[in-house]
Write a structure and sequence with these properties.
CATH topology of the largest domain: Alpha-Beta Plaits
Order of helices and strands: HHEEEEEEEHEHEEEEHEEEH
Bound molecules: uracil
Helix content: 10-25%
Number of strands: 15
Mean pLDDT: 96
Largest sheet: 9 strands, mixed
CATH architecture of the largest domain: 2-Layer Sandwich
Distance between the termini: 21 Å
Strand content: 25-35%
Length: about 230
């Protein structure tokens, strides 16, 4: 919300008071004097007037989890454990997943209460590369590389996937970098060759790499630097 609206929503300020208070440098947001009426105030921002706290600002939280196979990327599921069950944190109902993985896919999963941050991470226009380690049932041919770069037509969405980078590691293993996150995208891409994905593991999303110290099912808070990367 805009700072001027935030202030004028409080019963103690008229619109004129707000203008004058801002001009006089009596308002701070996150410790910095702000005179700009359009300055963005979020649920995480601390706002003060003459040093008095008007809004405490709730803590923004960011975690990376090593998702194990066999759990659901949802906040609730009637049958299976969910990724949120793996978190020992208060107020879990405030948290959401940024970029889901299939039930049997493992690897990097990001969880936060900051919707703006997770939108930046997942919106298609950001085009952050998501890197997967893939194991397949059949051999992976050299000719796959060109097809992944060219794109696959997905009839359901009526679109062609953006260029993806495939590195063949050995006969049945590859590393794949994609910039989208379509439903079952990796499996459908390999499905074009009738080649079933038997293991799928996400190693990174943009600059955020799964911490090798995290065992499956374990998680940690992101560092300030990791949060800022997005
Ligand atoms: N592509 C898939 O097919 N599954 C995932 O979990 C992620 C990407």
């Amino acid at each position: 919300m805009r700072l001027d609206r935030f202030l004028s929503n409080l019963p103690r300020f008229s619109r004129k008071d707000v203008r004058l208070a801002l001009l006089a440098g009596r308002v701070t947001v996150d410790g910095v004097t702000i005179r700009e009426p359009l300055h963005e105030v979020r649920e995480f921002s601390q706002v003060t007037f003459d040093g008095e706290i008007l809004q405490m600002g709730k803590p923004a939280r960011y975690f990376m989890l090593h998702k194990p196979p066999g759990c659901v990327s949802a906040t609730r599921d009637p049958q299976h454990p969910t990724v949120l069950d793996l978190l020992d944190e208060p107020d879990k109902q405030d948290l959401h997943i940024a970029g889901r993985l299939d039930f049997n896919t493992s690897g990097l999963m990001l969880i936060t209460n900051d919707g703006q941050w997770s939108r930046r991470l997942t919106q298609p226009s950001t085009k952050l590369p998501k890197v997967y380690h893939v194991e397949t049932e059949q051999e992976i041919g050299e000719h796959y590389i060109e097809k992944f770069a060219e794109g696959f037509y997905f009839a359901f969405e009526d679109l062609t996937t953006l260029p993806a980078h495939l590195t063949i590691l050995d006969s049945h293993h590859a590393r794949l970098s994609i910039v989208e996150g379509r439903y079952h995208q990796v499996k459908r891409m390999f499905g074009f060759f009738d080649n079933k994905v038997v293991n799928l593991h996400r190693e990174s999303i943009g600059p955020l790499v799964l911490d090798p110290a995290l065992q499956p099912g374990h998680y940690r808070a992101l560092s300030a630097e990791e949060i800022q990367h997005i």
